[in-house]
């Protein structure tokens, strides 16, 4: 099984997150692309570029798209790519989400999507002096 991973974020957020996750693991267990969206991007051409990335990443098992902030241009581009059973989108990409996804590369698209969301939820903690 080989799920593709597309990260769509403002500027270099996605590239930095992926570089950090890859450094932690030594490699990426998934084929991936990072798409950095600038504030001056043309949404239509960015959407086409994202479609091209999805096509390049989809080896038949689907693509998980992770975007930074819900409602933002990167997320709007990402949600325009949704194709049930082929392309799933999760907003709020974070390092805990990527680590969770990297730990379960063998899962199918639906299961991996749920792992990404749970990684985000489980990665949010209220810290105090005694815990963290």
Q: What does it look like?
A:
- With 132 residues, the chain is α/β, with parallel strands linked by helices.
- It has a single domain (4-122), classed as 3-Layer(aba) Sandwich (Rossmann fold).
- Helix content is 44%, strand content 18%.
- The chain has helices at residues 13-25, 43-57, 73-79, 95-103, 109-122, and strands at 4-10, 31-37, 63-67, 87-91.
- A 4-stranded parallel β-sheet has the order 2-1-3-4, sandwiched between helices.
- Helix 1 packs across helix 4 (95-103) and helix 4 packs across helix 5 (109-122).
- The chain is globular.
- The termini are far apart.
- The model has no long low-confidence stretch (mean pLDDT 96).
Topology:
Elements lengths: L3 E7 L2 H13 L5 E7 L5 H15 L5 E5 L5 H7 L7 E5 L3 H9 L5 H14 L10
Parallel strand pairs: 1-2, 1-3, 3-4
Number of helices: 5
CATH superfamily: Phosphotransferase system, mannose-type IIA component
Largest sheet: spatial strand order: 2-1-3-4
Between the first and last Cα atoms, what is the distance in angstroms?
A: 36 Å
Q: And the CATH topology? A: Rossmann fold
Question: Which architecture name does CATH use?
Answer: 3-Layer(aba) Sandwich
Uncertain stretches of 5 or more adjacent residues = none
Residue share in helices?
40-55%
- Coarse morphology: globular
User: How would you characterize the largest beta sheet?
Assistant: 4 strands, parallel
Q: How many strands in all?
A: 4
CATH class: Alpha Beta
Structural class: alpha/beta
Provide the gyration radius in Å: 14 Å
Total domain modules: 1
SSE string:
EHEHEHEHH
Oligomer: single chain
């Amino acid at each position: 099984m080989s799920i593709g991973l597309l990260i769509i974020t403002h500027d270099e957020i996605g590239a930095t997150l992926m570089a950090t996750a890859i450094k932690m693991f030594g490699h990426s267990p998934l084929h991936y692309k990072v798409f950095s969206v600038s504030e001056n991007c043309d949404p239509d051409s960015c959407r086409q570029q994202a479609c091209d990335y999805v096509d390049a990443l989809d080896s038949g098992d689907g693509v998980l798209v992770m975007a930074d902030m819900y409602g933002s241009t990167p997320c709007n581009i990402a949600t325009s790519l949704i194709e049930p059973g082929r392309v799933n989108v999760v907003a709020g990409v974070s390092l805990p989400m990527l680590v969770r996804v990297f730990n379960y590369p063998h899962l199918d698209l639906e299961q991996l999507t749920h792992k990404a969301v749970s990684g985000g939820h489980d990665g949010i903690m209220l810290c105090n002096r005694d815990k963290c």
